[in-house]
Amino acid sequence: MISEIWTEKYRPSQFSELIGQDNIVKRIESLTNSLNIPHLLFAGPAGTGKSTLALIVVKELFKNNWKENYLELNASDERGINVVREKVKNFARTKSLGDVSFKVIFLDEADALTPEAQQALRRTMENYSATCRFILSCNYSSKIIDPIQSRCAIFRFKLLEKKDIEQVIQKIIQKENLTITPGAIEILYEGSEGDCRRCINLLQSTATISPSITSELLSTIISSAKPKDIKVVLEYALSGDFQKSREKLLDVMLKESISGQDVIKAIQKEIWNLPVEPEIKVKLTEKTGETEFRIVEGSDPFIQLQSLLASFVLAGLGK
User: Fold this and answer.
1) Would you call 304 helix, strand, or coil by DSSP?
2) Cα–Cα distance between 238 and 290 in angstroms, integer?
3) Distance from the Cα of residue 128 to its chain's centroid
4) Whether residue 147 sits in one domain with residue 66
């Protein structure tokens, strides 16, 4: 809910305000200015501007009439074939209002559509192309069937870089009269991992506690394993002291309320800073991936992490 409120509040009113996807924005803007767009497929990670760009396109095309000419559906909620046969087809077959000759249907999370629904959708896209254009948004374009992909112009979004995230942060900080330290910006970027929506959520959660955003305050909100704590855990393990390594790991997980998967991610990042041979780092990375798979499949996180630490102990002993 928080992200929706903030996204609406700072939603760009024009193409130039969409950050981090310059090449895509330029191409979409030229298509929109011609008042004629093809079917579009936006693919990429969450929080990179796909839904926002779709809304900008619609608002630029239809101006004040955009609500009458726009239908937005979340395919993960309404993913069956009946949605395509009823809602989509009924909207697509009617004529648009205004100067633009077509309406726009935005299908968010289209990769959640069932194969049957996608087959029905491809026929709808073909039959009503004169009166309707589709904008599909998904995380993985490979989950969209080839006939739909071939009917769309595909645009692949990338995770936002640090400079892009910092630009968003500074804009919000200025509008909301907040203060932020340089170290806090770094933590926000690492915590969001290039996801602008998550970055805004973290920033608002912190701002509700204090208008001064600091590294310590953000670390409390994010609740992720601190690199220095994980480093200590791994150093104990590599030195052969399994008992201290295990105790420190338990301390980190309980005191900071860190999940097993978050610990795994922190370990994976820290492996490449360890003073061991590259071959050992590769083996430990492989073991880390295997441990994460077991945790995801339902194994006890702490038991699996102890097993992983045992692998680090053996690596430190040269075995």
Assistant:
1) helix
2) 19
3) 32
4) yes
Domain that holds residue 300: 227-316
* Tens-level pLDDT at each residue, the chain (319 residues): 445 444 544 444 477 778 888 888 889 988 888 888 899 999 998 888 898 899 999 988 888 888 888 988 886 666 566 666 777 788 888 888 878 889 998 988 888 888 888 888 888 888 888 888 999 999 988 889 999 999 999 999 998 888 888 888 888 888 888 888 888 888 888 878 888 888 888 888 888 888 888 887 887 777 655 677 788 888 888 888 888 888 888 888 877 677 788 888 888 888 888 888 888 888 888 999 999 999 888 888 888 988 988 888 888 776 6
Do 21 and 41 fall into the same domain? yes
Kindly report the CATH number assigned to the domain that includes residue 184. 1.10.8.60
- Based on the domain organization, do 45 and 128 belong to the same domain? yes
Helix (H) or strand (E) holding 39: strand 39-43
Domain shared by 38 and 101, yes or no: yes
What type of residue is 285? Answer: T
- What is the domain count for the chain? 3
Measured in whole angstroms, the distance separating CA 181 from the mean position of its chain's CA atoms is 25
Q: Report pTM.
A: 0.73
Domain final position from 177, 193, 222: 222
Q: Classify strands 39-43 and 132-138 as parallel, antiparallel or unpaired.
A: parallel
Per DSSP, the three-state class of 47 is coil
Tokens for 4? 């929706």
Residues in CB range of 317: below 8 A, 6 or more apart: 240
- Same domain? For 6 and 150 the reply is yes
Same domain, 214 and 233: no
